[in-house]
């Protein structure tokens, strides 16, 4: 027997003598399980992936269409002068207020409305 085997056997014997009797079998089982695990791990060969496995999950990429540049009108100066000649029309001038009440806006008008007394309803006896 070699010297290293004797040392390993004596260290196992010392560990067994220090603990209960079932610990030596646990050490032997641990080594057996570890050896089986390592053997199976080394023997494992993963199955090669199929070449076309990605076809259902990945869409083909295509570039978006190139945008067309805007075209200028043939007579740009005439169109600009026609645009400048048009009078701007405000929204209030288009749709005059048709109700009889005068609607005014502003903070002072709103505060006056809030400070005004509410009309009291007449109580019928």
Automatic annotation (TrEMBL):
One of its GO terms (molecular function) is proton-transporting ATP synthase activity, rotational mechanism. It holds the Pfam family ATP_sub_h. InterPro entries: ATP_synth_F0_suH. This is ATP synthase subunit H, mitochondrial.
């Amino acid at each position: 027997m070699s010297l290293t085997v004797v040392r390993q056997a004596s260290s196992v014997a010392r560990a067994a003598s220090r603990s209960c009797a079932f610990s030596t079998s646990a050490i032997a089982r641990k080594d057996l399980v570890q050896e089986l695990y390592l053997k199976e791990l080394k023997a494992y060969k993963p199955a090669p992936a199929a070449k076309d496995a990605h076809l259902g999950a990945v869409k083909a990429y295509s570039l978006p269409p190139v945008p067309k540049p805007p075209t200028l009108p043939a007579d740009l100066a005439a169109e600009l002068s026609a645009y400048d000649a048009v009078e701007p029309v405000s929204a209030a001038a288009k749709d005059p207020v048709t109700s009889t009440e005068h609607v005014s806006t502003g903070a002072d008008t709103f505060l006056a409305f809030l400070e005004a007394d509410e009309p009291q309803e007449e109580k019928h006896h």
